[in-house]
Amino acid sequence: xxxxxxxxxxxxxxxxxxxxxxxxxxxxxxxxxxxxxxxxxxxxxxxxxxxxxxxxxxxxxxxxxxxxxxxxxxxxxxxxxxxxxxxxxxxxxxxxxxxxxxxxxxxxxxxxxxxxxxxxxxxxxxxxxxxxxxxxxxxxxxxxxxxxxxxxxxxxxxxxxxxxxxxxxxxxxxxxxxxxxxxxxxxxxxxxxxxxxxxxxxxxxxxxxxxxxxxxxxxxxxxxxxxxxxxxxxxxxxxxxxxxxxxxxxxxxxxxx
Length: 257
Ligand SMILES: NC(=O)c1ccc[n+]([C@@H]2O[C@H](COP(=O)([O-])OP(=O)(O)OC[C@H]3O[C@@H](n4cnc5c(N)ncnc54)[C@H](OP(=O)(O)O)[C@@H]3O)[C@@H](O)[C@H]2O)c1
Known about the structure:
By secondary structure, this protein is α/β, with parallel strands linked by helices. The protein has helices at residues 16-27, 39-51, 66-80, 103-131, 152-172, 206-216, 225-236; strands spanning 7-10, 31-36, 56-60, 85-88, 134-139, 177-184, 247-250. It has a single domain (7-256), classed as NAD(P)-binding Rossmann-like Domain (Rossmann fold, 3-Layer(aba) Sandwich). The protein is built from 7 helices and 7 strands, in the order βαβαβαβαβαβααβ. The chain binds NADP nicotinamide-adenine-dinucleotide phosphate.
């Protein structure tokens, strides 16, 4: 019960890494506010977490909207009275190169992957200052520290998450607020099997994806959402009290190459 009596907001808790983190945080005793736009999925995660014996509220929210971000925090405070942990997880994957990226894709990517992270921090940090403590974990990527092909807007956004994490860690270190990023390598989530998720691709089976990854990831497989959630728990819990401004790579050795 590493998060007993802690209150956590998890943005984008409807699927993938956010859902796995919500489940793990619930097992560790946290009270939870989870968010996302797909309320059917969000309600299911809420029920799963409650079944583990903790309080959990799903808030339907689009974090590209400032008013939705504020509403999420207001609900968290009204329900639980404090915010100990903010996991800025909501994000989208986009592809393209500098010259093929449209204004629309650029703005869509920045709005959720960068601006929403800053906005949630901006709203939550005053409360954490008041409390004299708090932990923020941002979801970056291995592309927060290295680049790759044909993912220009996404890489640019995740690079920004990395520097935002470091800058905030320095600014709030003396206020008892730790800010770190988990930086997952390729992690198999359900959405990957959806048709068209990867530009120009059809539906991808888990087996096909796993086969492809065995060629370039040193550990020979994609990560699992639960493995990223474990790293988030480390950064969010009392196991990492002297860790701030850190980008924790969880990538099967991908960036060691
Ligand atoms: N999977 C990987 O290989 C990998 C690697 C590195 C980093 N990451 C990062 O991990 C994070 C989670 O992604 P995932 O892989 O778990 O994929 P996912 O299953 O697609 O999860 C994305 C989550 O973000 C939410 N979201 C997206 N746009 C939103 C918006 N405008 N407002 C509110 N919520 C929004 C989605 O909820 P709704 O659709 O319900 O709104 C969903 O819960 C992302 O930041 C991603 O960049 C993933």
